[in-house]
Structures are given as C-alpha cells and as structure tokens.
Amino acid sequence: METNNNVFIMDHPLIKHKISMIRDIHTGTNEFRSLVEEIAMLMGYEALRDLPLEDVEVTTPIETCMTPMIAGKKLAIVPILRAGLGMVGGITALVPTAKIGHIGMYRDEVTHEPQEYYCKLPKPIELRTIVVVDPMLATGGSAVDAIDQIKKHGGKHIKFMCIIAAPEGLERLSKAHPDIQIYVGNVDRCLNDDAYICPGLGDAGDRIFGTK
Ligand code: PRP
Ligand code: URA
Predict the structure, then answer these.
(1) 0.90 exceeded by pTM
(2) Does the N-terminal or the C-terminal CB of the chain have fewer CB atoms within 10 Å?
(3) What is the CA(82)–ligand 1 centre distance, in A?
(4) Which CATH number covers residue 146?
C-alpha cells in the first residue's frame, strides 16, 4: 500500500484486477455489484489494520489464555447513498458486528454541488471508528459534506474509503479534512466537463442498482 501523509493508495494486484473489471462497460449489474463488494472487502482489510486490540481471557480445549480481540465500541460503517451501499457488505463480511449509519447525498446535475437529504448515525458515534464509504470521489464535494455532517454529530475517528478518485477530489478532501485517513483503490487521470471521472467507470449508483 503506497502512502502519502494520510492518503493510502492500494497496490494489491487483486484490487487492481477487480477495478479493471468494473471499469468495463460490458460488466453487467450483477457482476458489478459482486465486484464492488469484493473490492470493498480487500480495501477494508487494509484500512482496518490499525483497529485497537485488547487482550481478553479465552478458554481453549487445552487451557485458559489471554488473547487479542478488537477493543472498544468497534466500528460504524457509513455509506454515502446511494452508491456507497454497494460497499457495505464487503466490510460487514470482515466485521459482522459493525453498526451502519447512512448519509443521503446526490449531486445537482448542473452545479455538481452535493445536496444532503438524509443523515442517521449509530450512537455513541464519538466512540466509534467510522468508515465512510463511496465508490467515487470526483469533485470531492459529497465526501467533504458527508464528513462535515459526521463531525457535527460528534464523529472523531474517521476513515474514508473510495474505489476510484480524481486527483481534484482527493486534494479537496485531504485539505478539508486533514485529520482523516483516506483509502483509495486507484487515482484516475482527471474530471471531464460533467465532473465525471476519466477513465472512471461511469455512474457508480446506476451501475450498482441497474437504473440506466
Ligand atoms: C456519486 C458518487 C458520489 C458522488 C461523487 O453519487 O457515488 O457520492 O457522486 O461526486 P463528487 O465527489 O463530485 O461529490 P451521485 O450524486 O451520482 O448519487 P447516487 O449515488 O445516488 O447515484
Ligand atoms: N459519480 C459517479 O458515479 N461517477 C463519476 O465519475 C463521478 C461522480
């Protein structure tokens, strides 16, 4: 995993391979959905490396020992609706006890500015490690606003995970929230005039839910 300050870029060949598959216009909804979940799981494995551990007493068939388990209030996964929903299953496969919040955002088609329509977070949010997920970081507006909201509700330990980022969005997010860790599957070339990522994969929400 390449790292630059708080930005971690994935370099695992399985992640690279699966990202290439979801870029393909011929990849259908069903396969796209499965691949997004698999990529989220592989990225989650990397992003959760620093979860705190505490030793607990466990009795094996042989004897009693102290052995490490995840400490504290554990995890909150917060997908940015809609497309972030596609990544949730990949992370709950790793941490089935994670609580799940939701933030509803859509981009205005003309201004490309995010519009928030929903926010519900698990309590106590301030004690949890929060993993915000969205496959696409384009202008960065949605991610910046979502994390603003989470911080307003008291969230402190925040990670953001996306599959594809534009350099513009990555810079905007890391400047707006220098205290969070950002995990990125791949940094693509640029945004086009419609604020879509190039080469990207198109509209992630439409491809996950089959709405186009
Ligand atoms: C997409 C994507 C991000 C956002 C990224 O969602 O899932 O949330 O755009 O763009 P930004 O970085 O420029 O804000 P969209 O607004 O298309 O909504 P949807 O998930 O409901 O389709
Ligand atoms: N949202 C998407 O789903 N895709 C992009 O390329 C940009 C924003």
Answers:
(1) yes
(2) C
(3) 8
(4) 3.40.50.2020
